[in-house]
Write a structure and sequence with these properties.
16 strands, 4-stranded mixed beta sheet, globular, 42% helix, alpha+beta, single chain, 473 residues
Length: 473
């Protein structure tokens, strides 16, 4: 009997541990994915004024604060019972698209490119962003440029690159300047050319990763994401759609404030990360995935010219639905192109320059739900308040949480396929970490299993032998 522990899983946002159990013949018998941190935002925000929630919850994460601020503000607007001005709606989508560009660029170029460019079995000491810079300096530079473009839009609108306080209940704090619009349009062609070159590059290396495509979380699951009234990609507004393993749409146009009728949450013994599931199928059979791959699987079209061409090529190669988690990387690149095309459309719309960008109101409802498609998937904020507007209850369902069950199944599949025999090679174990990176998890955003302490105490001998173990099972 042998145990492999990957602790921590690297090149992901947050902290996680993977335990792989092998039998005497060296075959994997069991795997375990544990998220080993807890944030507690749902509890310590109780008592705070509801209008503070966008500022507080955007501190959950330094990568996707815009996503949390948007979902939170939408939940607050449900409590206020207001509709934000049209210009504010456009500005929010603009900053959200910029968030997609910078977040997806971070995932592809900084976190996962070392696996593609240097090889899954390459020297682990050099398999990192510095190794990419040394071997592929031009591609590394373009990755930095693309992410910078997204961050500069966020900074230009909000005057802050991280944790912007510009997104507020009722709209945004200020209108966009003409100077910023001109700057965005001037830099946009460079960003689009980088995105298209990177897509071409990734398509050219897919042949080298056929085994990973075949065994990286390729077991069929359901998929979920928000779509517009015609089934098109919609990352800011929209209704929930679920597509099943065979490609059939099983639920469509679900208002986000009815999410509890379709999404349940299970607490797990070994993790602070809950496990959402599609309630008609129950737990654990109701596994579904969200995020870039899921969005491309649920939509009819992207709605922008170049992204739609790439979507057709993607489906021509991998069908509908495409199941391999390795294809999350491909899907993110298509979404970067989509976000850049939407940025161009939004900035060229004269209505975005309107200076009426915020509506005001007090408490008009005691409960509010807000949802958007964050880069990593569907993000739901659900608040309850008292008559004075103080928070009394919070539930956050974050993208990585939706994918928890699917990530665990993907780890098991990769482990059983790649780890065999008495001699364990580092490249085998790296593939287990790589399948987690494919989901681009944001673990610090998603842990919220309050009320159940997932604790394990291990007694280890000086020789490293496990002598005893206690857990809260």
């Amino acid at each position: 009997m042998k145990r492999i522990t990957i602790d921590p899983v690297t090149r992901v946002e947050g902290h996680a541990k993977v335990t792989i159990q092998l039998d005497d013949s060296g075959s994997v018998t069991r795997t375990e994915f544990s998220v080993t941190q807890v944030r507690g935002f749902e509890k310590f925000t109780e008592g705070r004024p509801f209008y503070e929630m966008p500022g507080i919850t955007s501190r959950i994460c330094g990568i996707c604060p815009v996503s949390h601020a948007l979902a939170s503000s939408k939940a607050c607007e449900a409590i206020m019972a207001v509709r934000i001005p049209p210009a504010a709606r456009r500005l929010r989508e603009l900053v959200h698209c910029a968030q997609f560009v910078q977040s997806h660029a971070l995932s592809f170029f900084y976190l996962s490119a070392p696996d593609f460019l240097l090889g899954m079995d390459s020297d682990p000491a050099a398999r990192n962003i510095f190794g990419v810079v040394a071997r592929h300096p031009e591609l590394a530079r373009e990755g930095v440029e693309l992410r910078k473009f997204g961050l500069q839009i966020i900074e230009g609108l909000s005057q802050e690159r991280v944790h912007p306080s510009w997104i507020v209940p009722g709209g945004v704090m200020s209108a966009m300047s003409q100077q910023l619009g001109d700057h965005i349009l001037a830099e946009l062609p460079i960003a689009k050319s980088i995105a298209e070159r990177t897509l071409n590059f990734f398509q050219s290396v897919l042949e080298d990763y056929q085994e990973e495509i075949a065994f990286f979380g390729s077991a069929p699951t359901m998929y979920a994401g928000t779509v517009d009234a015609k089934g098109g990609l919609q990352i800011y507004d929209g209704a929930l759609r679920f597509r099943n393993e065979s490609g059939e749409i099983v639920q469509d146009q679900i208002p986000v404030d009815e999410y509890q009728s379709w999404i349940g949450e299970a607490s797990l013994r070994d993790s602070y990360l809950k496990a959402p599931y599609f309630t008609p199928k129950g737990y654990p059979e109701g596994v579904y995935r969200v995020g870039a791959l899921a969005r491309l699987n649920v939509i009819e079209r992207c709605g922008t010219p170049k992204a739609d061409i790439e979507l057709q090529e993607f489906r021509k190669r991998f069908g509908l639905p495409a199941h391999s988690a390795f294809l999350f990387h491909y899907a993110r690149l298509i979404e970067i192109l989509y976000a850049l095309e939407r940025i161009e459309t939004l900035v060229n719309d004269p209505a975005i320059m309107d200076t009426h960008v915020r509506a005001t109101a007090a408490v008009n409802a005691l409960e509010g739900i807000g949802a958007i498609e964050a880069p990593r998937g569907t993000l739901i904020h659900h608040y309850k308040v008292n008559e004075e507007g103080a928070i009394t209850w919070v539930n956050l369902i974050v993208a990585t949480g939706h994918n928890n069950l699917a990530i665990s199944k993907s780890i098991e599949q990769v482990s059983k396929h790649f780890i065999k025999g008495e001699q364990i090679e580092e490249g085998m174990v790296n593939r287990v970490s790589a399948v987690i990176r494919a989901y681009d998890p944001c673990l610090s955003c998603s842990t919220h299993a309050q009320g159940q302490i997932a604790m394990r105490i291990s007694l280890i001998s000086p020789q490293g032998e496990l002598l005893d173990e206690l857990s809260t099972s």
